[in-house]
Design goal:
A: Rossmann fold; six-stranded mixed β-sheet; four-stranded antiparallel β-sheet; about 35% helix; globular; B: alpha+beta; 4 domains; nine-stranded mixed β-sheet; six-stranded mixed barrel; about 55% helix
Chain lengths: ~260, ~775
C-alpha cells in the first residue's frame, strides 16, 4: 500500500487541545503532527481518555484546536467562521457516528440526499439511488430509520457521508453499536470505498478486528501517538499492541 | 421547507402543544375581533326613514372623549324645522324631543329602566322611523299617547320625570316607544338635539341645502355619518364590551407567545441531538434556524386555519350572553368580518414565529459535537439572554408598578395588567436561579429514600425542564392572585369610601326605574339633589359639567338681591377661574342660557356645582333624582323603596362588581385554560422523552408505583415552584397596588388576598400536572408488556 507519496487529505501540525484552565487543565491532544494521505484507511486506537475522539473531532473541524494547525483538503480551518467551516465540512468531510445517525423523520433516500440539499443542490437523477445501491440498500430507499436494522442504518449513514464525495470520511466507532455480522458488513463497505474509489477514511475504534481492516493503525495515549502499525496487519498483532499499551509500556514498544 | 414538512409530519406530537396554543389563540383573537368589528355605531332604528338628520352643535369633547352637545330650545328647534321643511325635496321636518317614560303594570314599573330614559317621543317624529298609525287617532292633547300593542281607548298608567300619570291610548303604532302630542313632548324633554328630515329625491342634495339653512346652529348628517347619532348609553355599552374584547386579545396573544415559546424551548432542548446531527452533516446555523422557523410556519399555518372557523363560528353564539351582561347593546348581531379573520391569521403565525425565535437562536448555536455526545445533562440553565430578558422585564414591571399611583384611575387597571405580564415574564426567565436551592430545601426531608434522591437529582440535572413546567403555573397563579387581589383590595376600599359619604341611615332609592320621579321626591321628608348638566362658558371656551339642583336651605344665603346663585366646590372653582361674586354664563339642559353669580365656594358641593333645585327642575324637565336621604318615615311611591344607606351603596358597588367579576372570570378562565394546556403539554413532552430513563429505572428494579411516585413528585415540585414564584410576584405587585391606594387615600388599606380563587387555580394546575405525567407513564407500561 502506498501512503507517503499521496497528497494529504488531512494534515495536523503541532495540534494541541486542552480543556479547562489553570491547575485543572486537561491536555487531550499534545503537540500532535499527523498526516492522513489521500486514499488511505487509518484506524485510531487507544485506551479511554487517550484523546482519540478529540483527535477525530479536531481533524474533522467539528471542534477547534487550542493550538497548532489543522488543514483539511488543503484548507487551514483556523480562523474560519462557523458558516464557512460548516460549508467546508459539508463539502469535504463525511462523518459516521456510533449510533443514532439518521434523521428519524426522513426516509433512507432523503437522509442520503440531506447533505446535498443542505448545500442547496438538487441530487442528480439516480445519484442517491446509486449511492444506496453501493451500500446494498437500493430497495430500502423509502424506508424510515425505524424500519431499518442497526446495520442497515449505519450503511445508510455511510452512503450519506459519501454522497458528497468528500476528501475524507471520519468514522467514530462505526461498529460499536452493531452485532459482529453487521459490523463486518460496515467495515467491508469502508474498505471498499478506499479500494474502489480512493476514498480517505479515518476510523476511531477500540476493536482490533475492526482496526485490522485499515492500512495503518495509530495508537494514542495521553494525547500522543505512541505506536503505529502499517500494511495489512492482523487483529492479533493489534490486540497485542493494545494490551501492551494498556499495561503502560509504550516506550519499549516504540524502540 | 421540504425537510420542515417531513419533520412536522413525522413528529406531530412534539408540535401538538404549539398547534393547540396557536389554534386556540387564533380562535380567541378571531372571535373577539369579529365581535369588536361587528360592534359599530349605528343610527337608532327610529331614524330609518330619515336619510338626513340635523343635530344640535357640539361644544367640544368632554372628559370621556364624547362630544358635548348643546340643546336647541323648543322655540329654536321649531323655527329651524320650519325653515328646513320648506327646502325642496324635504317631505317633512320633525323635531325629535326625547324624554323619560315608563309603563307601570300592576303598580310596578315595567321594562328596562335604561331603555325607558329614551322611550318618550313626539308623535311627528314617528315618521322618521317610518312608523305609521295602525289604528285609532294621533295624540292631540295632554295625557294622550300612541303606543304599540295597546288597544285605542285603553287607560295606561305610566311614570314620567314629573311623577305617575295615567295616559289615554288614542291609537296604535307599529314602532317601539311612547308617542305623545308634539307640544307635550317638548314640555317633558330637556330641549331638542335632533331634527329629522324625510326626503323625496336625492338625500345628499337635501343635506347640502340643509347645511345652508342651518349654518353654525347645527350639524347636518346624512349617509354613513348618521351612525354618529347613536345614543351615548349605547356607545358606552359598546365601549365596555370593547374593553373586555381588547383585554382578551392582548392576554390571548401574550399567553400564546408564552406557551409557544416555552414549548419550543423544551422541544429544541429535546432535539439537541437531532439538531447537532444536522449541524454535523453540514447544516449551517442559519439553516437550522430557518428549519425551525419553517416548521413553526407549517404548524402555525395549519393551527391558524383550524382556529379561524372555531373563532368565527363561536362569535355569533356569544351575542346573547354579551347583550345580557350589558357589554353589547340590545339588537347587536355579529357579522362576518374578513379583516378580523385575516388579521387573526397573520397574528397567529407571527406570534408563533416570535415564540420560536429564542429557541431557534439557541438551537442554531448548538455545536455540532452535541450529536456525538449522550448529552442528557444540561450545561447551563441560565443563559445571558435569560439574564438580560429577566432583568429588563423585571425593571420595566417594577417601574410600571411604582409609577401607578401617579396615573389616572382609569389607566391603573391596564397598567396593573401590563406590570403583571412583565413581572411574570421576568419570574419565568429567572426561575432557574431559585429552582436549585428550592429543590434542595423541599427534598431535604426525603434525602434518604430512593424516591427523594431520584427526584432531587433528576430535577437538579434538568433545571430547565422544571422551569418549563413551572412557567405556566407561575403565570396562572400570578395572574389570578394579582388580578383578583387588586380588584378585591380596591373594591374593599371603595365600598368603605362611598359608605363614608352617606350620612343619613335610610335612603329612598329607585326601584325598577332609572331614577326617582319628582312627586316621589316631594312626598318625602328628606334631602336630595337633582342631577343635571350645565354648559359653562368662560372666556372663549365652553365645557360641560355635572351639576346638582339643591334646596335653598343647603345653598345658604346668596349675595344680596339674587336668588339664582350657584355654589362651587374648590376644584370646580379653580377649573372655572371663579371666585365668589363671579358671574357664570351657563346654558341649561333645555338650551336656554342664564348668567348665574357664584354665591359661595365650599370644600364639597355635590358633583361640583350646586344650583337652586327649582331652576334645575325648570330647565331639565326630564331629570330624575338618584336618591333621597330621609329624615322622616318613607312615603310609599311607585318606583321607589326605602333602604339603609349601606345597602344602597352596596347595590351600586355590586352592579359595578358584577361587571368586574365577569371581566375577571373571562380573563382568568382564558389564562387558566391556556396554561393548563401548557402544563399538560410540557409534562407530556418531557415525560415521553424520558422513556429510556424509566426503562433503566425499571431494569434497576423500580416498580411501576415507584416510577409514578418519582414523576408525580417531580410534577408537584414544578407546580410548587411555579406557585411560589407566581404568588411571590403577585404579593409583591399587590403591595405596590396597596401602596398606590394608600398614597391616594392617605390611610392604611387592608390587603385582600383571594385565597379561594388562588386555591382553585393551584388545584387545577396540580390535577393537570399529575394527569399529564401519569398518563404517558401508564400508557407506556401497558404497551411495554
Amino acid at each position: 500500500m502506498t501512503t507517503a507519496n499521496n497528497p494529504p487529505a488531512v494534515e495536523l501540525r503541532g495540534v494541541t487541545k486542552t480543556y479547562g484552565s489553570g491547575e485543572r487543565t486537561v491536555t487531550a491532544l499534545d503537540d500532535l503532527d499527523l498526516i492522513f494521505p489521500a486514499g488511505t484507511f487509518t484506524a485510531v486506537m487507544g485506551p479511554s481518555g487517550s484523546g482519540k475522539s478529540t483527535l477525530l473531532h479536531c481533524a474533522a473541524g467539528l471542534d477547534r484546536a487550542t493550538g497548532g494547525e489543522v488543514i483539511i483538503d488543503g484548507t487551514p480551518v483556523a480562523g474560519l467562521s462557523e458558516r464557512v467551516l460548516t460549508r467546508l465540512r459539508r463539502e469535504r468531510v463525511g462523518f459516521v457516528f456510533q449510533a443514532f445517525n439518521l434523521v428519524a423523520a426522513l426516509t433512507a433516500a432523503q437522509n442520503v440526499a440531506l447533505p446535498l440539499r443542505l448545500a442547496g443542490r438538487k441530487p442528480a437523477a439516480g445519484e442517491v439511488t446509486a449511492m444506496l445501491g453501493e451500500v446494498g440498500l437500493a430497495k430500502r430507499a423509502d424506508h424510515r430509520p425505524s424500519e431499518l436494522s442497526g446495520g442497515q442504518q449505519q450503511r445508510v449513514a455511510i452512503a450519506r457521508a459519501l454522497v458528497t464525495r468528500p476528501a475524507v470520511l471520519f468514522a467514530d466507532e462505526p461498529t460499536g453499536a452493531l452485532d459482529a455480522a453487521s459490523g463486518r458488513e460496515v467495515l467491508r463497505l469502508l474498505r471498499a470505498s478506499v479500494d474502489r474509489h480512493g476514498q480517505t477514511v479515518v476510523m476511531v475504534t477500540h476493536d482490533p478486528f475492526a482496526a485490522a481492516h485499515a492500512d495503518r493503525v495509530l495508537f494514542l495515549a495521553d494525547g500522543r501517538v505512541v505506536d503505529f502499525l502499517t500494511g495489512p496487519c492482523g487483529a492479533q498483532e493489534i490486540a497485542l499492541r493494545t494490551a501492551r499499551l494498556e499495561e503502560g509500556r509504550p516506550a519499549e514498544v516504540l524502540s | 421547507m421540504r425537510l420542515a414538512w417531513a419533520m412536522v409530519r413525522h413528529r406531530f406530537a412534539a408540535f401538538a402543544g404549539t398547534f393547540v396554543a396557536v389554534a386556540l389563540g387564533v380562535a380567541v383573537v378571531a372571535g373577539a375581533t369579529t365581535i369588536y368589528l361587528s360592534s359599530r355605531p349605528e343610527a337608532p332604528e327610529r331614524y330609518n326613514s330619515a336619510p338626513v338628520l340635523v343635530r344640535s352643535p357640539s361644544v367640544g369633547d368632554n372628559a370621556f372623549g364624547e362630544p358635548e352637545y348643546q340643546s336647541w330650545t323648543a322655540g329654536e328647534a321649531i323655527r329651524l324645522s320650519g325653515e328646513l321643511a320648506k327646502l325642496p325635496g324635504v317631505t317633512a321636518a320633525a323635531v325629535d324631543p326625547v324624554f323619560y317614560a315608563q309603563r307601570v303594570i300592576a303598580g310596578r314599573p315595567a321594562g328596562d329602566p335604561q331603555d325607558a330614559l329614551l322611550a318618550g317621543h313626539a308623535w311627528s317624529s314617528a315618521a322618521l322611523g317610518g312608523y305609521r298609525l295602525a289604528a285609532g287617532t294621533a295624540p292631540r292633547g295632554p295625557g294622550e299617547v300612541v303606543v304599540a300593542g295597546v288597544a285605542p281607548g285603553s287607560r295606561m298608567p305610566v311614570l314620567t320625570a314629573a311623577g305617575p300619570a295615567t295616559w289615554t291610548v288614542t291609537g296604535t303604532v307599529d314602532g317601539p316607544g311612547f308617542y305623545v302630542a308634539d307640544r307635550e313632548a317638548l314640555r317633558m324633554s330637556a330641549g331638542v338635539r335632533v331634527i329629522g328630515l324625510t326626503v323625496d329625491g336625492d338625500a345628499e342634495a337635501v343635506a347640502g341645502a340643509a347645511r345652508g339653512v342651518v349654518g353654525p346652529a347645527g350639524e347636518v348628517v346624512s349617509g354613513g355619518a348618521r351612525d354618529s347619532l347613536e345614543p351615548v348609553s349605547v356607545t358606552r355599552t359598546r365601549w365596555l364590551g370593547a374593553q373586555l374584547l381588547i383585554a382578551m386579545v392582548v392576554l390571548g396573544g401574550f399567553v400564546a407567545v408564552f406557551v409557544v415559546a416555552s414549548t419550543c424551548a423544551l422541544g429544541a432542548a429535546q432535539r439537541r441531538r437531532e439538531i447537532g446531527l444536522l449541524r454535523a452533516v453540514g447544516a449551517t446555523p442559519g439553516q437550522v434556524r430557518r428549519l425551525m422557523y419553517a416548521e413553526t410556519l407549517v404548524i402555525s399555518t395549519m393551527a391558524a386555519l383550524a382556529g379561524l372557523p372555531l373563532g368565527a363560528l363561536t362569535a355569533p353564539l356569544l351575542t346573547g350572553p354579551l347583550v345580557d351582561t350589558g357589554l353589547e347593546p340590545a339588537g347587536f348581531t355579529v357579522t362576518m368580518q374578513p379583516a378580523a379573520l385575516a388579521g387573526s391569521f397573520v397574528l397567529g403565525v407571527v406570534v408563533a414565529l416570535a415564540g420560536v425565535a429564542v429557541a431557534a437562536r439557541r438551537a442554531s448555536r448548538a455545536p455540532a459535537l452535541d450529536a456525538l455526545r449522550e448529552a442528557a445533562v444540561e450545561r447551563r440553565a441560565m443563559t445571558p439572554l435569560r439574564w438580560i430578558a429577566g432583568a429588563a422585564t423585571a425593571a420595566l414591571g417594577t417601574l410600571l408598578l411604582v409609577t401607578m399611583p401617579m396615573m389616572a384611575t382609569t389607566d391603573q387597571s391596564s397598567a396593573g395588567l401590563g406590570a403583571a405580564m412583565l413581572l411574570l415574564t421576568a419570574a419565568a426567565a429567572l426561575a432557574p436561579i431559585v429552582i436549585v436551592p428550592l429543590v434542595r430545601l423541599v427534598t431535604w426531608p426525603w434525602r434518604g429514600a430512593a424516591t427523594g434522591m431520584l427526584v432531587r437529582e433528576g430535577t437538579l440535572i434538568a433545571v430547565r425542564r422544571v422551569a418549563s413546567t413551572a412557567a405556566p403555573v407561575l403565570l396562572t397563579v400570578g395572574f389570578t392572585v394579582l388580578l383578583t387581589g387588586t380588584v378585591a383590595t380596591i373594591d374593599d376600599v371603595q365600598g368603605q369610601h362611598d359608605a363614608d359619604n352617606i350620612p343619613a341611615t335610610v335612603v329612598l332609592a329607585p326601584d325598577g326605574v332609572p331614577g326617582l320621579a319628582e312627586t316621589a321626591v316631594q312626598a318625602q321628608a328628606g334631602t336630595s339633589h337633582l342631577p343635571t348638566r350645565l354648559l359653562v362658558t368662560r372666556g372663549a371656551t365652553t365645557a360641560g359639567y355635572d351639576a346638582e339642583g339643591a334646596p335653598p336651605s343647603e345653598l345658604g344665603p346668596g349675595p344680596a338681591g339674587s336668588s339664582g346663585g350657584v355654589v362651587l366646590d374648590k376644584t370646580r372653582a379653580k377649573d372655572l377661574h371663579a371666585s365668589v361674586g363671579t358671574t357664570l354664563d351657563v346654558r341649561w339642559a333645555d338650551g336656554s342660557t342664564a348668567a348665574l353669580p357664584v354665591r359661595a365656594i365650599r370644600a364639597a358641593a355635590g358633583a361640583g356645582i350646586l344650583v337652586p333645585r327649582e331652576l334645575a327642575r325648570q330647565h331639565d324637565p326630564a331629570a330624575l333624582t338618584s336618591a333621597v336621604l330621609l329624615n322622616g318615615p318613607p312615603v310609599a311611591s311607585v318606583g321607589a323603596r326605602p333602604m339603609s344607606a349601606r345597602d344602597y351603596v352596596q347595590i351600586e358597588i355590586d352592579e359595578e362588581g358584577e361587571l368586574i367579576d365577569l371581566f375577571l372570570l373571562v380573563l382568568i378562565g382564558l389564562t387558566v385554560g391556556y396554561t393548563g394546556l401548557a402544563v399538560a403539554n410540557t409534562l407530556l413532552m418531557a415525560t415521553s422523552a424520558r422513556r429510556p430513563e424509566f426503562r433503566t429505572l425499571r431494569l434497576a428494579g423500580a416498580t411501576e408505583a415507584q416510577i409514578l411516585r418519582v414523576t408525580s413528585a417531580e410534577a408537584l415540585l414544578a407546580v410548587a415552584v411555579g406557585t411560589l414564584l407566581g404568588a411571590g410576584v403577585a404579593v409583591a405587585s399587590l403591595s405596590g397596588v396597596r401602596a398606590a391606594v394608600e398614597a391616594e387615600l392617605d390611610r392604611a388599606v387592608a390587603l385582600v388576598v383571594p385565597w379561594g380563587t388562588a386555591a382553585a387555580v393551584i388545584a387545577t394546575c396540580t390535577v393537570v400536572a399529575l394527569a399529564a405525567t401519569t398518563l404517558p407513564v401508564l400508557r407506556r407500561s401497558r404497551s411495554a408488556t
